[in-house]
């Protein structure tokens, strides 16, 4: 443990020009920090709409050795803009970053919760983010290799495109759109999806939607935009993404459910990569692995950590106690999977909702959804 490391808490607007310049230099020197989430622009924009935003400035003597943008929810600490933040960690040179456990001690919160920690950790569970890395020549060599390795899948998608064109008309894809009405359409489709699946509606709190809107206003080589796939006159799929340098981060994909047989979301991803490669993008980040289709696209990964570090001696929070109880009801064979699911749901609820009543409602909905998906719980506990 580096006892010489000290922390200074600052509101984002109090960071100086020298701070921002050092931040950029550290990020550029550390290949693990290539995601747009680590750009200074993301922190500046997110801090303008995210409740409880702060930056921990890490010092060793008079020298600044790192930055950690985060938010507070009561005594809990989370990465800035959680649950929207897929990648987070200390902005530092590769050889000076403290471990996650050390960060938790320095910040002195009741609890530190992370889902995609980049850098030294010493705690938590491994997760994999997956991506498609294109060669310097761009899309065509990548697609030729993928079509050889996964021929059946991509031939099926080519047939799906022909079916979509036959049913609705010619397929057209547009990138780089910043239309607020299209964003509202994406948010509406995502909210319907959350209701169907029983997941917490991350857009109900309001500030998360304002974050996506604000990111679309950024200019230069950092920003966010929408890609749209139309067949004839009909919008079939949309995706909100963030991008910076040569990195394109797929973020919020949506498609018209009735067209699932034609795979419009997959077709949009393919065409986004084709057109995006012509704009200089080479890393197309699909976020956390899990969805079946990602394995056909992705040829690289990055190891991340998910962890909850609680201050010693503190009793469990209401959310933590509820998760433990519900996990226990599932029995030993299913308890861990259920606890993991519920922990992630609770983390999203706590991050989104700054009002205690809204959090309690969210937890109740999450618990009911978990119980519906584990129908033998009540029988096992009777």
State the share of residues found in helices, binned by percent: 40-55%
The whole-angstrom Rg is: 22 Å
Query: What does the average pLDDT come to?
Result: 89
The N- and C-terminal alpha carbons lie at a distance of 48 Å
* CA-based shape: globular
SSE ordering:
EHHEEEEHEEHHEHHEEEHEHEHHHH
Number of helical elements: 13
β-strand number:
13
In what range is the share of β-strand residues? 25-35%
Verbal overview:
- It is built from 13 helices and 13 strands.
- It has 382 residues and is an alpha+beta fold.
- Strands 1, 2, 3, 4, 5, 6, 7, 8, 9, 10, 11, 12 and 13 form a 13-stranded mixed sheet that branches.
- The N and C termini lie far apart (48 Å).
- 40% of the residues are buried.
Layout of strands and helices, then pairs:
Elements: E1 5-10, H1 17-29, H2 40-49, E2 53-60, E3 63-73, E4 76-79, E5 88-89, H3 100-107, E6 111-118, E7 125-133, H4 139-149, H5 151-168, E8 171-177, H6 180-197, H7 207-215, E9 222-231, E10 234-244, E11 247-255, H8 264-278, E12 283-288, H9 294-297, E13 300-310, H10 318-329, H11 332-352, H12 356-373, H13 376-381
Parallel strand pairs: 4-6, 5-6, 11-12
Antiparallel strand pairs: 1-2, 2-3, 3-4, 6-13, 7-12, 7-13, 8-9, 9-10, 10-11
Helix pairs in contact: 2-7, 4-5, 10-11, 11-12
Descriptive tags:
disordered C terminus; 13 strands; globular; 43% helix; single chain; 13-stranded mixed sheet
């Amino acid at each position: 443990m580096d006892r010489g490391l000290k922390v200074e808490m600052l509101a984002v607007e109090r960071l100086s020009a020298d701070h921002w310049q050092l931040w950029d230099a550290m990020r550029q020197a550390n290949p693990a920090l290539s995601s747009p989430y680590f750009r200074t622009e993301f922190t500046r924009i997110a801090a303008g709409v995210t409740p409880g935003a702060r930056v921990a400035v890490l010092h060793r003597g008079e020298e600044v050795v790192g930055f950690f943008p985060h938010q507070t929810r009561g005594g809990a600490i989370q990465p800035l803009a959680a649950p929207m933040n897929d990648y987070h960690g200390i902005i530092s040179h590769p050889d000076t970053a403290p471990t996650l456990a050390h960060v938790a001690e320095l910040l002195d919160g009741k609890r530190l919760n992370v889902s995609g920690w980049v850098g030294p950790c010493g705690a938590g569970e491994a997760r994999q983010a997956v991506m498609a890395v294109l060669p310097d020549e761009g899309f065509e060599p990548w697609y030729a290799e993928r079509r050889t390795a996964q021929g059946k899948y991509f031939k099926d998608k080519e047939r799906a495109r022909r079916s979509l064109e036959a049913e609705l008309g010619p397929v057209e894809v547009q990138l780089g759109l910043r239309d607020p009405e299209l964003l509202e359409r994406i948010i509406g489709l995502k909210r319907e999806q959350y209701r169907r699946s029983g997941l917490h509606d991350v857009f109900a709190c309001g500030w998360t939607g304002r974050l996506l809107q604000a990111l679309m206003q950024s200019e230069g080589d950092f920003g966010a935009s929408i890609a749209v796939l139309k067949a004839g006159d009909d919008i079939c799929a949309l995706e909100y993404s963030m991008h910076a340098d040569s990195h394109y981060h797929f973020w919020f994909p949506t498609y018209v459910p009735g067209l699932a047989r034609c795979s419009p979301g997959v077709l949009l991803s393919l065409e986004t990569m084709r057109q995006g490669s012509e704009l200089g993008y080479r890393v197309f980040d699909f976020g956390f692995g899990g969805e079946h289709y990602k394995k056909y696209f992705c040829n690289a990964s990055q190891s991340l950590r998910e962890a909850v570090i609680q201050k010693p001696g503190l009793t469990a929070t209401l959310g933590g106690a509820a998760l433990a109880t519900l996990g226990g009801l599932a029995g030993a064979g299913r308890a861990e999977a259920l606890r993991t699911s519920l922990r992630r749901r609770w983390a999203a609820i706590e991050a989104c909702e700054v009002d205690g009543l809204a959090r309690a409602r969210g937890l109740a909905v999450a618990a009911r959804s978990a119980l519906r998906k584990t129908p033998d719980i009540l029988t096992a506990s009777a």
